[in-house]
Amino acid sequence: MTRSLVALALALAFVAAARAQDTFKWDPKAKHKPAVGYKHFTEATENEKQSVRVTLEKQTLNKKDEDVKTVFRFTSEVLEVDGDDVTKESVKVEKWSRTEAEGDADTSLEGKTIVVKGKRPEKTWECKEKDSLSEAATAWVEKELAKKRQKKGDDDEGEKKDEEQSDPLKKFAFPEKPIGDGEEWTRDPVKLAQAMFGDEMQIEKEKSSVKGKLTNVHVEDGVHFGHIELKIVLAIAKSEKLSEGGTVDLDAQADGTLEEDKRDAGKLKMTMKLDVKGTQQSPQGVVKVKVKVDNVVDRSTGPAEDKK
Asked: What CA–CA distance (Å, rounded) separates 43 from 73?
């Protein structure tokens, strides 16, 4: 027993010493370099709830409630690359279902193979059974697999906007410089809000915040992994349309690789809540609008050989 305790103490001391000597810094700008033949999987469950209420002098003009759950798993294989960009990939959708609160599950995309060509913002996609896909399935492909530019324009400004919108959290919520285990950071909430929602949504900077922290940095098979925490609060400013303003609360917890150039794998759990209210005067009386959105995302990604 004594020898076991001594061995355990020595092992713990060794681990602590190794961590103390590890001066690794996480650089969010390091990206996975695609290669022809590389296969990776994405698996996720997404719950989206939305509530809209429009009233005129206490009379309901519009009432809308949505509760949608999407579950999917797909494996992508890189077929062609151009520098750091994938220009052609084959996506096998092994599992896909979209279920509303009332109604049968839509599984029209399950089992299909999607071929995505080109670079954003000019991506196109093909599917032999395209005519059998539902409208919701088609919209999901264009949002998840073949994203297009949200801001029009072919000039440098348009390309800049496109880059910012392709992954606003990485661009405007992750740290601007490399950081180590236990370090925290902040970012500009105004820039993040513009990238996420466009210039039409203004926020109150003094009441908003973007905060992050890196913890539990460790090594797995020669690659650094860690836990990333993001907490974002956006106070939507009052405007002509949103006389009472609103809030956006986003909480993200991620566990995964900190060296994407060596290994691209991780798990993400994210929740986002949006709550806005507005009052407008019309010839018929006072019109009140209330919108609530509650989204939960649970996603895993990694090399295809990791998939169980």
From this structure: 4
